[in-house]
């Protein structure tokens, strides 16, 4: 059986015929040895056809289709022209070797050409790739490299440009940065505490918050200079006057050692860095909340912005999270425990990242697994709504949160929750009502904007008229009189034209009415004549009948 090889390059499609495979015995080791030697490989593999691409755009389209496992019309025509035809009802006496199995399956579905993709075919294609420049005579030494570089750049640029999940990347990067900032701020704050404790050790016991401690370390600087004059500033930082007095008293009776001015400057600078990092962390947290409300509002309202962002980042994107079943979403983040349990045949984990939600913490120890399963189900529904819905609303997320609350009450108190169908119907109804309310709110705003535009246009025209009516320095009064006369003449003409049109309209109406009444009179007279003729004919018939009876 003959074996043809389809090789896709950046310059076009090429078809090779592999000869002498029975002698080799389709041994991959023998093929590997013969690939490096062009004389041996050239005898086994020969070029039969080559179809160059028309342009760089055509090459990009063909590359995209091959990567997606789709056979284009150009590839189909190329194969049908250069491969032997397969008769209906008979097996093909050849096969086509393909690098991508998806493309091979699509070719077989459409053209019924048998395709194969295995190690033997891949080794032959590796040899074709190695010696491809020598198979085609018209190619210059650097043409193939330039085509490969250009196609690679355009393919990667198109993938980045048309990336569906590019909006999700902002959330993923923000949540990663937030986690790293938490670790860094905590470690730096501990370093400030240890460093400044050499000078003022009693401050650690009074102030527990890291951010406030860094603020105080920068404000106090040297404890010996701290006096009661600084009490108002200390109360502003601490928010408590008693604590401020306690800090002042502790500074007076402190057991810490004195630090040189250079050491105090370094401590102050480091405390300022910690403060800047913690402030940036707050801003980043606000940014993440707004971004989650834009991208996944239902998921954020159901489980929270931080947990929802962690789920999206762990899945890779919102679409990947939407494709996950609820059982997979339930244990996202607990993959190590899952595979350890499968390996040791132990109990599988009940929850992963979902454990950070407040619902599972509120559930009892016996119902934590049930609550995790139910919450994962609702999270999968919310993520699918966020991913595939056109308009972003939080109605569904709020309703799903109500369902989770009802389930918690059911586990604790035994109160029967509502059915999912009823809740979803109520959510759809409320979403429609919100849309109509938005439209109603927008319509008066649009009308008021139009009115304001009309008023502005009228005011502009009035101003222009006033500006025109304003007298000029040279002969302004005469020009005003002329303009007034012209306006009066134009008004008279308009009045005359309107009067003529009205008179014409009334005349037409009167004429139509007269014509209508005349036609009605004519019809009535004709009807009367017909009735008189019918009566006369009936009288004649009666007279004739009476005469006949007399005879």
TrEMBL record:
Compositionally biased tracts (Basic and acidic residues): 492-511
InterPro entries with a match to the protein in the record: Nop56/Nop58, NOP58/56_N, Nop_dom, NOSIC
Residue span of region Disordered: 432-551
Chain ranges of the Nop domain: 295-413
Keyword terms of this UniProt record: Nucleus, Ribosome biogenesis
A Pfam family reported for this protein in Swiss-Prot or TrEMBL: Nop
Annotated Basic residues bias: 539-551
Subcellular location: Nucleus, Nucleolus
PROSITE patterns: NOP
Swiss-Prot/TrEMBL GO biological process terms: ribosome biogenesis
Any one GO molecular function term: snoRNA binding
Gene Ontology terms: cellular component: box C/D methylation guide snoRNP complex; small-subunit processome
Family: Belongs to the NOP5/NOP56 family.
Name recorded for this polypeptide: Nucleolar protein 56
């Amino acid at each position: 059986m003959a074996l043809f090889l389809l090789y896709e390059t950046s310059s076009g499609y090429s078809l090779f015929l592999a000869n002498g495979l029975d002698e080799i015995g389709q041994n991959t080791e023998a093929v590997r040895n013969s690939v490096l030697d062009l004389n041996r490989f050239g005898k086994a593999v020969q070029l039969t056809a080559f179809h160059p691409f028309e342009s760089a755009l055509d090459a990009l389209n063909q590359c995209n289709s091959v990567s997606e496992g789709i056979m284009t019309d150009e590839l189909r025509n190329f194969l049908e022209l250069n491969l032997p035809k397969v008769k209906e009802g008979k097996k093909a006496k050849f096969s086509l070797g393909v690098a991508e199995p998806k493309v091979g399956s699509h070719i077989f579905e459409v053209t019924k050409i048998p395709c194969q993709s295995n190690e033997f075919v891949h080794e032959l294609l590796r040899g074709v790739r190695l010696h491809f420049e020598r198979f085609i005579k018209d190619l210059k030494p650097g043409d193939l490299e330039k085509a490969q570089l250009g196609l690679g750049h355009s393919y990667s640029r198109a993938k980045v440009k048309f990336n569906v999940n590019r909006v999700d990347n902002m959330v993923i990067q923000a949540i990663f940065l937030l986690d790293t900032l938490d670790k860094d701020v905590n470690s730096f704050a501990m370093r400030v505490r240890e460093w400044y404790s050499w000078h003022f050790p009693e401050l650690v016991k009074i102030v527990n918050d890291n951010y406030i401690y860094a603020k105080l370390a920068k404000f106090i600087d040297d404890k010996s200079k701290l006096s009661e004059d600084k009490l108002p500033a200390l109360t502003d930082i601490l928010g408590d006057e008693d604590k401020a007095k306690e800090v002042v008293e502790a500074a007076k009776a402190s057991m810490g050692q004195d630090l040189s001015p250079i050491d105090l400057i370094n401590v102050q600078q480091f405390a300022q860095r910690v403060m800047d990092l913690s402030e940036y962390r707050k801003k980043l947290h606000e940014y993440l909340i707004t971004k989650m409300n834009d991208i996944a509002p239902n998921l954020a309202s159901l489980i929270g912005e931080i947990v929802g962002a962690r789920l999206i980042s762990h899945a890779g994107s919102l679409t990947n999270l939407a494709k996950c079943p609820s059982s997979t979403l339930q244990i996202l983040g607990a993959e190590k425990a899952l595979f350890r349990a499968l390996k040791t045949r132990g109990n599988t984990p009940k929850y992963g990242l979902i454990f950070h939600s407040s619902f599972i913490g509120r559930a009892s120890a016996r119902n934590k697994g049930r609550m995790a399963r139910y919450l994962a189900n609702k999270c999968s529904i919310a993520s699918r709504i966020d991913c595939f819905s056109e308009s972003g609303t939080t109605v569904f997320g709020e309703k799903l949160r109500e369902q989770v609350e009802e389930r918690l009450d059911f586990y604790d108190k035994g109160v029967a929750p509502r059915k999912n169908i009823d809740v979803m119907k109520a959510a759809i109804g409320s979403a429609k009502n919100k849309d109509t309310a938005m439209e109603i709110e927008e319509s008066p705003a649009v009308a008021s904007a139009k009115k304001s535009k009309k008023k502005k246009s009228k005011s502009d025209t009035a101003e222009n008229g006033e500006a025109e009516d304003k007298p000029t320095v040279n002969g302004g009064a005469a020009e005003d009189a002329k303009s007034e006369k012209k306006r009066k003449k134009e008004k008279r003409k308009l009045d005359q034209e309107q009067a003529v049109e009205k008179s014409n309209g009334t005349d037409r109406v009167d004429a139509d009415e007269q014509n209508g009444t005349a036609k009605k009179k004519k019809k009535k007279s004709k009807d009367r004549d017909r009735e008189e003729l019918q009566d006369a004919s009936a009288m004649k018939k009666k007279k004739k009948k009476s005469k006949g009876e007399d005879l």
